[in-house]
Amino acid sequence: MSQAHLNSSKSWVVFGFAILAYISAISQRTSFGVAGIEATERFNASAQILASFSVVQLVVYAGAQVPVGLLLDKFGPRILITTGALLMAAGQAFLAISVNVPMGLVGRVMVGMGDAMVFVSVLKLLPLWFSGSRIPVLTQLTGTFGQLGQLISLFPFHMILLGVGWSAAFSVMSGFAFATFITTIAFVRNGKTWEGIRQGEQEPGSRIVRAWKQPGTRLGFWTHFTTAFMINTFMMTWGYPFLVEGQGIDSALASGLMAVFVVVSVLLGPILGALTASHANQRSNYALGIVGTILVMWAVVLCWPGQAPLWVLVLLMITIAAGGPASVIGFDFARTFNPPHVLGTATGLVNTGGFMGAFVTIYVIGFIMDMLYKAGGSVGELYNLPAFRIALSFQFVMALLGITFMLIERRKARRFLAEQ
Known about the structure:
Shape: globular
Number of helices: 19
Number of strands: 0
Helix content: over 70%
Mean pLDDT: 90
Low-confidence stretches: none
Radius of gyration: 21 Å
Structural class: mainly alpha
Distance between the termini: 28 Å
């Protein structure tokens, strides 16, 4: 089969509009994270109920990854990206008119289902349109450019939310998702390589088993789990309330601090992409080093007497943000250990890691916050710094779990490669 279309100008057009869909998906995913305080008032919700919005979305996202991976290997990226964009548009439109918790949850379920289809589909497009060492670099760039979606939720969305109101803000987000539905139909194609890959098609059950048997897939899962759950916990639910209510920062500065995540992704993503392309045997060490740095900064902030100074919070933002590019290393493990016709399934399995870790962490933090509030007689502020210190410390438990399994699966992966 001719490979002339690889690395062509059309490749970049397809990649560009696929990235636009992913930018939209990130903005839809993180929009609720900066609307937490408004959601508490709109739905008269406790911390646990507020957490349930993100938990439900993440459960749907993580639970959909294996079915999405199977569908991706069968139907290709284009269909899944368009379907995902349409679901997110419908979900945000429904959230715009929601007036109670059950309605709001339905909207977030739809957003989670649509979001689940986009990222793994964009990654599946890369080997269909590009070749060689470009792929690990473009994998990192996919994550990097996708983080621009956070800027959309942090600034224009948040400004509309504060200035015009809930319904207008979420309606605008719905319109953005629908626009990417149209552009994906118009410009994104699976490519000439797709039919050749489909010839290796297997039964769904055998694809899952084959992908999970690869130690690289399992190492990718635990790498994604360990590197991504803290950034998802912070961005999707607890970061904004922690900065505003726990650290006493005004809302505009809090949004600006969270924008550091995008800057770090833009700077660090390409560097990690180049390093993983040229030093593949050091990939897990890069990930473990970043996780260790995040944990050190969380320990500093949570143990700081009183509210931490701004420069310390900036350092915390920088280190947490580094978890985003580090999590992409997990997908590189899946790519290098699996044949093309099961790559979508393997990528979906890896992508469940950080989101499974996040929904457990988000829910437990909300549970601890409510428990501490009730223990204090339900007086004072629900969100306060002493409560945040205790609740956010649960992240250390989850990180220890992830690091342990990373080390176990890394040893198995290295033994597998030596045997091969």
